[in-house]
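Supplementary Note 2. Why include the ligand at all?

Several targets in our set were suspected to adopt different conformations when bound, so apo predictions alone were not considered sufficient. For every target with a known small-molecule partner we therefore ran a joint prediction. The input for s-citryldethia Coenzyme A is given below.
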Amino acid sequence: MSNELPSIPVHTSSPDEKATLTMPNGQTIELPVLAPTHGPKVLNVSALYKQTGYFTYDPGFLSTASCDSQITFIDGERGILLHRGYPIEELAAQASYVEVAYLLLYGKLPNQTELVEFGNQVTYHTMVHEQFKQFFQGYRRDAHPMALMVGTVGALSAFYHESLDINDAAAREIATHRIVAKMPTICAMAYKYSIGHPFVYPRNDLDYASNFLHMCFSVPAEEYKVSPTLAKAMNRFLILHADHEQNASAATVRISGSSQANPYACIAAGCASLWGPAHGGANEAALRMLFEIGTKDRIPEYLKRAKDKDDPFRLMGFGHRVYKNYDPRARVLRESCHEVLEELGKNNEPIFALAVELERIALEDDYFQQRKLFPNVDFYSGIMLHAMGFPTSMFPALFALGRTVGWISQWKEMIGEPNQRIARPRQRYTGEQIRRYVPTNDR
Ligand code: SDX
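The joint prediction is reproduced in C-alpha cell form.
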C-alpha cells in the first residue's frame, strides 16, 4: 500500500431520500434510501411485504445487505479492506493479532493499558477444562481436523451454558474472552490428536501466535523454541483472516445467534460453514490443486478445465463474490509466503514458483479478466502454511482460528442491537399445489 490512504467516497445521509416502486397493479410505494459511511447506499425494503404482498428475491444475496455493521468495510472493485476504518495492509504490517482482536471487538485500537489488560484476559482463559480432552477420544485419528473443531468447539457450550445469560453484558464479555482464548488451544489439540502427539498446555509467557505454535509443534521430549519468523508469519496470517464482513460463515454465526443460541454453539456453526471448499476450505483445496498440477507445463490443461462449464473443476484460490480486483490479503500473504520460504531456505520450493506462474498466466487470460477473477486470500496461504509444517487438512482449521474473533465480534454486534430479532428469511415457493392425501393402496 502506498503511504497515501486511498480516498473512499463518504456519503452524507439525506434523511428523506427515497426510491419509488410501481407495482404491476399500478400501486406506487416509496422505499427509504439509507446512506452508509462508505460503499453502496441501500433501499430499505423491510416494509415491502406488508405494503405490497411481495417478497424481494435474491438467492445467494448478491444484492442484499442483511444488517448494519461497523466492523469491516470491503470495496471489492478497488480491492480495499478496512477493519474499523484501518486498512488491512497497515494492521498486518504493524499490529499484533490481539490488538486487532481488541479493535474488532471494541471499535478502537487499545492504548497500552487496555492492550495489557485485554491480553491478560485472553491469556488467563487459554486452558480448557481437563475433561475436554475426552471429546477427542471419540474421533478416529484420521478424522478431518474441521470435524474435530466443529464437534469440540460446540462442546464448549456443555461447560459454560448454565453460566451464560446472553442478555447480561458482563456474561457476554467473558464468553467473548473465553472463545478468543480457547480457540488456539482447541485448534492445536485437533492437530496434536491427528498426529498422535500428547496435548500441549498453553503457556502464559508466550504471545498469542507463539503460544499457538508452541502448542502445535512442541513435544515433551525436548525444548521447543518458537521461531520469531514463524511467529510473525502466524500473527500476520491470523490478522489477515480475522474478519471479512458478511461472508457465509459470519452470516451463519449471526443467524444462529439471532435465536439467542449459546455463542459457543454459534461459533461451531461458523466452523461448519467455513469448512466448505467454496469458502474457508479453499486454502486446502488450492494447495491440493497446485500439487495435482505439479509442473508449469500442465497449467494450460487445468486452465482449460477451469473454463469448461461441463467440468466442475474451478481454479481454487481464485475468484471472490465481492473482490473484483486483487484481494488485498492475497498481496500481503504472497509477501509473507516469500519471507517464510526465504527464512526456511525453501524459496526454491517448486510449488511457490508454480503458484506465481499460474497466477501470471490466469491474470492474462480473457476468461479470468472478463470475470474479474483474481487470487484471493486462500491462494498463497496454503503454500505458507505448508512451508511452516502444517498438514494440508489443518488449513481450514487455521482459517477458523483467525476468523473466530471476527465471528464473535459480529455476534456481539448483532446480539447488542437494541431491536435485535430472530433472522428468518422467506422463500419463493415453487413446489406442488395443494392436493389430497392418497392412501397407500391407491398409489
Ligand atoms: C473465501 O465471502 C468472503 O468474504 C469469503 C472469504 C472470507 O474471508 O470470508 O473471502 C474467504 O471464501 C475466499 C473464496 C475462496 N473460494 C475459492 O477460492 C473457491 C474458488 N472460487 C469460486 O468457487 C468462486 O469464485 C467463489 C465461490 C469464491 C465466488 O463465487 P460467486 O461469487 O458465486 O461467483 P460465481 O460462481 O457466480 O462465478 C462467476 C463466474 C462464473 O462463470 P459464468 O457462469 O459467469 O460463465 O466466474 C466463474 C464462474 O464459473 N468462476 C470461476 C471461478 N470462480 C468463479 N471459474 C473458474 N475458477 C474459479 N475459481
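DSSP finds 18 helices and six strands in the chain. Residues 169-194 form the longest helix (26 residues). Comparable summaries for the other entries are listed in the accompanying table.
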